[in-house]
UniProtKB/TrEMBL annotation:
Zn(2+) binds at residues 160, 163, 206, 209. The lineage of its organism: Eukaryota, Fungi, Dikarya, Basidiomycota, Agaricomycotina. This is Deacetylase sirtuin-type domain-containing protein. It is found in: Mitochondrion. It comes from Leucocoprinus leucothites. Residues 1-304 form the Deacetylase sirtuin-type domain. The active site is at residue 152. Keywords: Metal-binding, Mitochondrion, NAD, Transferase, Zinc. One of its GO terms (molecular function) is metal ion binding. The keyword Metal-binding applies. One of its GO terms (cellular component) is mitochondrion. The keyword Metal-binding applies. Coiled coil: none annotated. Belongs to the sirtuin family. Class I subfamily.
Amino acid sequence: MTDLTSAFREKFKDAKHIMVVAGAGLSAASGIPTFRDGGGMWRSLDPTELATPEAFAKNPSLVWQFYHYRRTKVLAAKPNHAHEILAKMSVPKYLKKVAPSAKTFHLVTQNIDRLSPDMLEALSNRLALESGDNSDQPKREYVSPNSIYEMHGRIFDVKCTECDHCVEDRSNPLCPALGAADAAFKDYHDAGSQDIEIPVEELPRCSACGALARPGVVWFDEKPYHLDVINTIVYKADMILVIGTSSTVRPASTYAYRVKRHGGTVAVFNLDPSETDERSDFVFCGPCETILPTVFPELVSQTL
């Protein structure tokens, strides 16, 4: 164990209110491209220009095709060891191994991929089976309640543009037209120059009222979810881990500074340097799925 890791572990051991802010780097090893690297490009288009209300109003067909691609990527992805470690921190008996003084733990994720909640649910079910509970229902009492907040929404949510009805739907494709457009696009020799237009009436529709539906995610210039609760968590936190995020998107980019301002400890786990580094107490450089297991080896299973 390095001197940096040992010093961080001593601080972590004494933390009472632990907060994690996670970004796309957490899921990169699971095969989900990030918006801000070359792997995040889609059909030679910039995803940041598609993830906006204006883009959807102008061309809902194109935006839905982009999100069909993203949904397909997420459906094929599996949680990695970084997801596992954070999920175990939501379980009191595991958290006490590394933070015996901890009273609360919260994960605030900017990711929409559902990998963290899915990992936590799988862990909860496994703990239930180990205890002799063979029911089919997830046993949330084995984990800390409300420990994960998905501030940018969820990739599988389908939300009405008129009545706000929202349901989770993991169907692939979500509607026949999206599957057909995807197959047709892959058949083009010069795919980058093609634009497949799906009629609006063939795009996903609201299951309640039949109006046009949209992805249930937070787009640029939209207000993130759970901000009041998250602000309370930030106010109480005496330890914040910034994991896999460039810390450029507000308000998540402000959380580390706010925790530091009221005397908390800031630890960054990231592949590339970021603006957060200079005001951090600890900086761990490298892939999250590699660095976190070296820092918290007792929270890693041999298999996921």
